Amino acid sequence: MASSEEDGANGGASEASDEREATRKRRRLGFLATAWLTFYNIAMTAGWLVLAIAMARFYMEKGTHRGLYKSIQKTLKFFQTFALLEVRIVPTSVLVTGVQVSSRIFMVWLITHSIKPIQNEESVVLFLVAWTVTEITRYSFYTFSLLDHLPYFIKWARYNFFIILYPVGVAGELLTIYAALPYVKKTGMFSIRLPNKYNVSFDYYYFLLITMASYIPLFPQLYFHMLRQRRKVLHGEVIVEKDD
Ligand SMILES: CCCCCCCCCCCCC[C@@H](O)CC(=O)SCCNC(=O)CCNC(=O)[C@H](O)C(C)(C)COP(=O)(O)OP(=O)(O)OC[C@H]1O[C@@H](n2cnc3c(N)ncnc32)[C@H](O)[C@@H]1OP(=O)(O)O
C-alpha cells in the first residue's frame, strides 16, 4: 500500500508535474475531444453514482439482495454498454481496455441478463459492488484530471482500491458463471447442435468453461498492468511498457 505521507512529501513537485502533464494532454487531445471526454466522464461518474445509490437504497429498504439485480439492471446495462465507446477513443491500450470491457459486456448481456435463475446469486452482488466502486473512482479520476483539479485522495483511491476490488470482482464474475453452468447444460441455450444445414456446432456450456479458464492467463496481466501504473503514478517510477 502507498503511504500517503511518503507520497505527500513529494506533494508540491508532483502536483506541478501533474498540472504540466494535464496541460500537455489537453493540447494533444484538442479542444473538442477534451470537451467530449469531460462530458463523457461526468456522465459516466453520475451514472455509476446513481447505481450505487440505487443499490444502497434497495438494500436498506428490503434488507436482502434478492431482487436487487432486477431493480438496477436497466441502469447497469446502459452505463456498462456505453463503456464500449472507450475502446479506441481514449489514448489507452486497446488490448487491456478491450479485455476489461468485453468481459464486462459478456457478464452483463450473455450471463446475467440471459440467465434469469442466477440473478439473485450473492456473487452477482459481489461483482456489482466491485464494478460500481471502481467506476465511480475511475471516471471521477479522469474527469478531475481533464479539468486539471485532481484531488489527491481520488488519485490514491484509483491506484489502491483495485488491489482488493479486482480480485473481489473477478471472484464474483467467476462464481456467477459457475452458478450458470447447470442451467446452461440443462437448457442447451445459445448452443447449435449437429446436424444442421451450415454444418456447424457450438456448445455454450464448453464456451463458458473456456471463458472461465481464460481468466487464468488474462486477469494477472490486467492486475500487474495496474500495479505497474500504480508504481508509475503514485511513486514516480519510470516503467518501460512493452507494445501490445
Ligand atoms: C467474449 C468473452 C470475453 C471474456 C474474457 C474473459 C477474460 C477476462 C479476464 C479479465 C477479467 C477482468 C474482469 C473485470 O471486469 C473485473 C473488475 O473490473 S472488478 C473491479 C475492479 N476493477 C478495477 O479496478 C479495474 C482497474 N483496471 C483499470 O482501470 C484498467 O486497467 C483499465 C480500465 C483497463 C484501464 O487501463 P489503462 O491503464 O490503460 O488506463 P489508464 O487509466 O491509465 O488510461 C490510459 C490513458 O488513457 C486515458 N483515458 C482512459 N480512459 C479515459 C477516459 N474515459 N477519459 C479520459 N482519458 C482516459 C488516461 O487518462 C491515460 O492517458 P495518459 O496516459 O495520457 O495519462
Key features?
244 residues; mainly alpha; binds ligand L7CU2Q4V
Short description:
The protein is an all-alpha fold.
If you had to describe this structure to a student in words, what would you say it looks like?
It is a single chain. The protein is mainly alpha-helical and 244 residues long. Helices cover 77% and strands 0% of the residues. It has helices spanning 4-9, 11-29, 31-62, 68-82, 86-89, 94-113, 122-146, 152-158, 161-187, 204-235. α3 (31-62) runs antiparallel to α7 (122-146) and α7 (122-146) crosses α8. The chain is globular and about 65 Å long. The two termini are 28 Å apart. The structure holds ligand L7CU2Q4V. Residues 25, 37, 41, 86, 90-93, 96-97, 99-100, 102-104, 106, 130-131, 134, 138, 142, 162, 165-166, 169-170, 173, 211, 214-215, 218-219, 222, 225-226, 229 line the site of ligand L7CU2Q4V. Keywords: Endoplasmic reticulum, Fatty acid biosynthesis, Fatty acid metabolism, Lipid biosynthesis, Lipid metabolism, Lyase, Membrane, Transmembrane, Transmembrane helix. It is found in: Endoplasmic reticulum membrane; Membrane. It catalyses: (3R)-hydroxyhexadecanoyl-CoA = (2E)-hexadecenoyl-CoA + H2O; a very-long-chain (3R)-3-hydroxyacyl-CoA = a very-long-chain (2E)-enoyl-CoA + H2O. Residues 1-21 are annotated as: Disordered.
Head-to-tail CA distance between termini: 28 Å
Task: Give the strand tally.
Answer: 0
**What is the approximate shape?**
globular
Q: Major sheet: size, sense and barrel closure? A: none
Helix-and-strand structural type: mainly alpha
In terms of DSSP E residues, the strand content is under 5%
Uncertain ranges: 1-9
- Order of H and E elements: HHHHHHHHHH
**Hetero groups:** ligand L7CU2Q4V
Tally of helical segments: 10
| Average pLDDT | 89
Summarize the amount of helix as a percent range.
over 70%
**C-alpha-based Rg, rounded:** 20 Å
